[in-house]
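ESCALATION

Customer reports they have been waiting on this structure for their group meeting. Please prioritize. Original submission:
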Amino acid sequence: MSLVPTSVSILSCIEGSEVYGCTISSLVSVNVNEKSPEIIFVLKNESLIGKNIRLGNLFTINVLASSQISLAKKYSKEREPDLLSDQTWNISDGFPKIQGARVYLECELAKVYESHAANIFVGSVNKYFGDLNHSALIYDARNYGRFNPLN
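Update from on-call: job pushed to the front of the queue and completed.
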């Protein structure tokens, strides 16, 4: 699957005074209706951020800009959660957003499908923002790069 290029996104949620985040590459839009857009992503059954999302219901998906490789590397490894005051995060309305991300989606948990080795999370998108001035960071063949449109 590392040969299938995907956007690099950081899933984030707040628990107490901390921000939890991890990279995901399984982001899929399942309902593009303007009134009720929905997305899905997959997390391992034992995922700590998955447990936190189930408790708090609110989460953000931050699609990284091509200049944010260091964040992709940081959040793809195990580490301690960040403090709300960390400069990486812009917290508004209970949603942790990454400064300079290409896209962010403020979501509410709609459903979790418990599967074999992973759970499928369905989120209702409450609010979104995209910045066309930033190219998206992609992961392809175990390397980070930028999306280069042909036109």
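Sent to customer with the following note: Residues 33 and 125 are 10 Å apart (CA to CA).
Escalation resolved.
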